[in-house]
Amino acid sequence: GAVVSQHPSWVICKSGTSVKIECRSLDFQATTMFWYRQFPKQSLMLMATSNEGSKATYEQGVEKDKFLINHASLTLSTLTVTSAHPEDSSFYICSARGTGLRNQPQHFGDGTRLSIL
Amino acid sequence: GNSVTQMEGPVTLSEEAFLTINCTYTATGYPSLFWYVQYPGEGLQLLLKATKADDKGSNKGFEATYRKETTSFHLEKGSVQVSDSAVYFCALNFGNEKLTFGTGTRLTIIP
Questions:
Q1: Chain A residues closer than 8 Å to B99 by CB
Q2: Closest CA to B100 of B23, B10, B38
Q3: Per the CB < 8 Å rule, is A105 touching B34?
Q4: Beta strand residue intervals within chain B, DSSP E
Q5: Are B66 and B27 in contact (CB under 8 A)?
Q6: Nearest residue of B to residue A37, measured between CA atoms
Q7: Which chain A residue is nearest to residue B39, measuring alpha carbons?
Q8: pLDDT at residue B95 is higher than 90
Q9: Residues of B in contact with A8 (CB under 8 A)
Q10: Which is higher by pLDDT, A99 or B42?
Q11: Contact indicator for B107, B36 with CB cutoff of 8 Å
């Protein structure tokens, strides 16, 4: 149980393109989803927290207009990297936390490797 | 603020060796503690967790004990396998808040 599916797993595109990454909880309802960015051989950096039906909360230094997050349902959140540039190339990982009890663990997707040429 | 300090890697061991990866934390109060594992090219998988002092989390032969007195949550395994090669992250949170991660420790097991 508690499977999180992230799509696509790998995307290569030209500079200036907008890229959408989907994060789905397959067998549970996720009130909250988190988006992380990971640079090579580094830890995960939280970009934003999204709650279903409300605006995402962005971490300091993360551009809201650059990284658009939509959490339209209890099973789907999307991250759109707008007008992507080479410096946006990275590994993006989402996680989802179920509804209900406190201390629910986060379940992670397999990540999306984004390469901007 | 909250922080997690992890043993720096990389760590290289021979198969069947004993593994310890140190993790200490700084937090106000008593957080939940986690170990996540990341295999190459993949996202993170929850390995084990502990939610209160003296709890022991265990999974797949790995163990970690929540030590309040030393604010530690060291990961151990008695006999590692090649398939354990991965990056291991220690993390904490309070309730349903965001996770705070350590920097990760890359483990390589040699046959």
A1: 34, 46, 106
A2: B23
A3: yes
A4: 3-6, 11-14, 19-21, 23-26, 32-38, 44-50, 56-59, 62-65, 75-77, 86-93, 100-101, 105-110
A5: no
A6: B43
A7: A110
A8: no
A9: none
A10: B42
A11: no
